[in-house]
Amino acid sequence: MKAPDLPPFYAHPARLILILSLAPTAGLGIGRFAYSLVLPDMREQLAWSYSAAGFMNTINAAGYLIGALLAARLIRRFGVVASVRWGTLACVVSLALCALTGNFVVLSFARLLAGVGAAAGFVGGGALAAMIAQTRPERANFLLSLFYAGPGSGILLSGLVAPFVLQWFGPGSWWIVWWAMTLLAAVMTIPLWLASFPSDAMTKQEASVKFTIAPVAIYLAGYFLFGAGYIAYMTFMIAYVRDAGGGALAQSAFWSLIGLSAFVTPWVWRGVLGLNRGGLATTIILGVNAIGAAMPIFGHSPLLLAASALVFGVAFFAVVGSTTAFVRFNYPPESWPTAIAALTIAFGIGQTIGPIVVGAITDAVGSLSFALNISAAMLALGAILSAFQRKLEVKV
User: Fold this and answer.
1) Which stretches does DSSP call E strand in the chain?
2) Is the pTM of this model over 0.85?
3) Which of 4, 150, 180, 230 lies 20 to 30 A from 92 at CA?
4) What is the pLDDT of residues 135-161, one digit of tens each?
5) Which residue, 180, 176, 187, is CA-closest to 158?
6) b/e per residue 253-270 (b: at least 16 CB within 10 A)
């Protein structure tokens, strides 16, 4: 597919995409995943069951689903840049709300708001990053990977801060962690508001090719399973590490390894992301993700857990990038926001169901290991389904 008929986007596309990556850094890396770091302390201090703990990520995922459902419409109405900026700001507000109260209803609302904001920022940011990357076709896959490495920065930063704040202030200090996360996310929003991005003209056009589900139904099913499977690992693995005797240093190291792995993603998967063959790239990357998620099944040794974090992380951030590459290869540019939103909806449904189901299973059988086995199995099945997706023949 040829590059979009747009004016050249400045002299430094990588810099612009890195600034855009701050939206998922704040909305996902911090807004969603930092919850896992404070979950053990919140669960103990607020007397939550695993089901209640899982519900907090389910309501966050429900917000993400709502945001994805509204994203294409919001982008057409207000523009992609406004979607990214205001969505990220909503995530900052939600983090501050989490710091203010232990009320379950208010916390649920805050997690819902974080999901809506993260989806608006992610869909808008992903579409804009794809447009910018496409103006440099020879580097497009690498440039696009920079955007999807964004959540890793948030995971790394929160992993370096949250466990030690909890250790320093002691049990019951989960709310202090939320204030620290609010500060981190607020800093992320500043470059997003100061940067000058390309015109919204293209993203406000009506798509000349309508998105239909049938040709990509099996691919959507595989992405749904990724959403359901990955979130269980990311929600409960810190609890798993702590239950195995890991203190603040071990928890920080495990979480930081997941975040650090994001920084090698653009180089590791550059060739795979260039495979314009239906769902093959997603199958390869999601298969590696499943292997990483399955590693804790075989024991609690620090070396095994470290390997799990690295393998899971280096593939986790690339799975989403592979779906955007799929969209970029198979749809015209004016259809990208709608197609990315449709994939995000399938993903959002999966991650809405995943946490509360895994939490309920854990309550029923009393074993996080059993629940994590289910997580790895869903990821493996998602990889298998994606392999059956063929390249589309879309008339441009």
Assistant:
1) none
2) no
3) 230
4) 777 777 778 778 877 888 888 899 889
5) 180
6) bbbbbbbbbbbebbebbe
